C-alpha cells in the first residue's frame, strides 16, 4: 500500500498501447493510417491529463505536495528575512501576551477546584451574623456550634466540612532544629474524603481524628516537594506546629493547595482544642477557644450536595436548624433583629479570587486582545504589502497554469510557517510571563499554562493562520494572469479598493492604540497618586516582624514583650523599638463602635461610629515618626498598675469630641465596662493601607489590657533596616528557641503590599500600552513605506514635471495625518467607554482626565508622524530619472 | 463513426457507474482498456460516452482495491496491451453493485412513473 506498484511510465505506456489498438481498429474500419491515428488521439482526449490524474492518485501525493509547499514557503520567507522576523516577533508578542494573561485568568477564575465532582460542592454563606458576635468575614464565617449543628442534622448537604487557618498569615512550624513558617489549616475529619482529594502518599483524616483532635498532619504536595524533596520517608515524622507535635500521616494530591484564596496551604491538621492552636492564631478570649466560644464566627464551611438533592431543598431543610444554632450561647435574638439567612454559593472555582482579581484580569484580557488585534492587523498589512509586490509572481504563476487552489495553498503554507514560528516563541514568552505575573500578583497557586490554555492559544493561532493566508489571497488573485504582461509599475499598482482596506486597518489600529494609551495612562496616573500619597509617618528606617510567644497567662505575656523590647533597644544601631497587635500596612484592623465619655458616641446620621483601634507599645508614635499634636506618646511607665491611657487621632477628635480639648476625656468599648483616658492626640496617618481614607482611630497600651498573643515588633534603625534582622532573630531565640521571626520586612515594603495589585495592574497596563504603541508604529511605518514605494513612479513623474520636495513630503504626511485624525476621532469615544469601565480601579484621577486623553492623542500623533517622516523623506529624495527608469 | 451529431445522443456516465460497467465487462473474460471502452460503447448501443482518461484512472482505482488484476500481454492483432481480469473480490463486488443498481433504478422508475401519471391526469 505504501509503495505505488506501478510507475507513471508504465501508465503512459498503457495509454500509448491504447492509442495504437484504437488506431488499428479504426484502420480496419477503413480509415487512412493518418486519420486513424488522429482520430484515436481525439477520441482519447487529453492524455497528459489522464497521466496527471494517475499521478495525483498517488498516496504520497499530499505529503509530497506539503513538502514542496513547505520548501517553497521557507525559501520565499528566507528571501525577505526582515519581513519574516518582524511578522514572527509581532505575532509572538501579541499571542504571548494573550496566552500569559489568559493562563492567569484560567488559573484564577476559570479553573475548577482540583476535587472530584466540583459541581456538587458549595460554600456556605450567611446573610449576616447575629448581633453580639465577632466574625472574620460577615458572610463567610460561622461559629463552631453552627458547624456542629449543620454537620449533625443536615440531610441535603453531606458532609458539611469546616476549615480554618491556624493564622492570618503563616504559623510557626519546626521539623528540624530551626523554626520555620508555613501556612496551615485546621479541618474537619471529612475534609479529604468529602472533597474527594486523593492522597498519593499515606492517608487523610477520619471523623474519629476530628473527635479525638488527633495530633496528625497531611502535607500539600507543593510543601512536600519544597521542604522535603518528595521524600516518602516523611510519613511518621513529627511536624511541630506552634510547638505542638503532629505526626505526618499523608501527602495530598498534586495541584490541591487548599481552599484559601490566593494562598497555598502547606499542611492540614484535624480541628484542635489546645489553646496553642486556636483558630486564626488568636489568643483565647476569656479562656475560651473557637470551639467553646459561640460569639466568634471564624470557621469557613464547604459542603457537598447529597445525590438527588437540589440546593433549594438542602437550604430549606437547613434554614431552621441554622437559625436555631446561630443563637446557641447568645440568648434570644432581639425583636427588631433580622435573622441570619443561610445560603450556598458555587464552589467550582477558588473562593475570593473573583472579587480580588476578576475585574483587573478581565480588563487586562481586553487590553491584550486589543494588542493582539493590532498585532494581527500589522502582520496582515505586512503580508498584503509583501504579496502586492509579489503580484507579478502570482500573475506569472497563474499565467503558467497554477490554479487558485495552488496559490491559496502556497499562501496558507507561508502563513502556517509564520504562525508556527510565532506561536512557538509566544509560548516561550507566556511561560516566562506567567512566572513573573505570579510573583508580582503574589498568587502562590500555580499559574503555569495548562491544556485549556494550550487549546486557547492553538485556537488563536489557527485563526491567525487562516487570516494571514486568506487576507492576501484577494490581492494575489486580483492581478489576473494578463497582469504579468503589463510592464509599468505606475499602472499596475493603483488598485483603489486595496488601498482602502489598508487605510481602514491603519485607522482601526490607531483607534485601538488611543484606547490602550488612555487606559494605561489612567492606571499609571492612579499608581503615581498612590505612591505619592503621604502616609503620615516616616517609613524609612523602619523594619517590622511578628512574634508569637508560647505564653498562656497575662503576666507571662507582658513580661515576654517587656523583656523583648528591652533587649532589642540596646542592640547597636537601634533608635527605638515598639510593638503593635495589628501590623500597620497589612490590611488588617480592629473595627468597633466605641463609647466616648461613657455614652455611645453621638454623631450625625451620615457619619459612621466605627473606630479602628490597635494595641501599641511604648514609644509607638515616636518610632513610627507620627507627630503627637497634643499630650504624649505611650511610655514604659504606663503599666497594668497605672491608670488606663489611650491615644486618639485627629479624625477621632473631630468626629466625637468636636470643639473641645480631647485630653482627659475617655473612650472605651461598647459594653461600657472600661474607660480609657485620652492622654494624646496624633496626626492622621495610614493604618491598614495606602489607599484608605482617614477614619477615627484609637490606641490602647498593650501592657494595660487583657491580651496576650502574637504581636508585631517595629524597630527604627540607622542604615539598612533589614541588616538588623540577624541580631533581632538572635534576641528572639534567646527568649524561646522555637520562635521564628514572622514575615520580617521593611515597613515600606509592607505598605507597598497594599497596593501590589494596583502596582502590577498599572505596570502591565503600561507595558501593554507601550507594546501597542511599538506595534502601531512599526505597522504604520511599514504601511506608509509600502505606499510610498508603490508610488515611486508617480512621485518621479510629479517631480519631473516640477513638484518640489516640500510638496512631495507634504503629500505623504497629509496622507498619514488624515489617517491619524480619523483614528483619533474613532478612538476617543471608545476610550471613554473603557475609562468608565476602569473607574473603580482609579485613584485620584477622573475617568475623563483631559491630560491623559491629550497625552494619548499626542502619543499616537507623534508615532504617526515619526513613522511617516522616514518614508516621506525617502519619497522626497527620489531622483526623478531613476524613479522613472526603475521599471 | 463518432460524429458531432451522434455525440449529442450520448450520455455522460453517472458517477460510480463506470466501475460497475468495467466489472461487468470483465466478467466476460480478461480484456485490455481499449477493448473495455469499445465493449461498453457497443453494448450500450453507443449511448454511453466513455471518457478514456477516466476509464484508465478507474481501472487503476479498481486495481488498487484488488477488485481486478492486470498483466501485460499481447492482443489479437499482436500489439502489446495491458490485460485486466476480475479477482474473486471483484466478483463479489459485481454482485453487490448490480443489486444496488437494480434497487436504485427500480426506485427511480417508481418515482418517475408516478410523476408522469400525475402530470397526465392534470393535463
Architecture overview:
The complex is a heterodimer of chains A (887) and B (123). Chain A has 887 residues and is an alpha+beta fold. Chain A folds into four domains: 8-59; 118-348, no CATH class; 357-531 and 756-885, no CATH class; 549-738, no CATH class. In chain A, 50% of the residues lie in helices and 15% in strands. In chain A, helix 6 crosses helix 10 (311-325) and helix 11 (353-389) runs parallel beside helix 22 (756-790). The model of chain A is unreliable at 487-497 (pLDDT under 50). Chain B has one domain: Arc Repressor Mutant, subunit A. Chain B has five helices and five strands. In chain B, strands 2-5-4 form a three-stranded antiparallel beta sheet. Chain B has a two-stranded parallel sheet with strand order 1-3. In chain B, a hairpin with a 5-residue loop joins strand 4 and strand 5 (80-86). In chain B, helix 2 (17-27) crosses helix 5. Chain B is globular. The termini of chain B are far apart. Classes of the chains: A alpha+beta (887), B alpha+beta (123).
Short descriptors:
heterodimer, A: 887 residues, alpha+beta, 26 helices, 27 strands, 50% helix, 15% strand, B: 123 residues, Arc Repressor Mutant, subunit A, three-stranded antiparallel beta sheet, 5 strands, 60% helix
Task: Please outline what is shown here.
Chain A has 26 helices and 27 strands.
Number of strands of chain A: 27
Counting DSSP H or I runs of 4 or more residues, the number of helices of chain A is 26
What oligomeric arrangement do these chains adopt? heterodimer
Secondary structure category of chain A? alpha+beta
CATH architecture name of chain B = Orthogonal Bundle
Nearest-integer average pLDDT of chain B: 79
Helix content of chain A: 40-55%
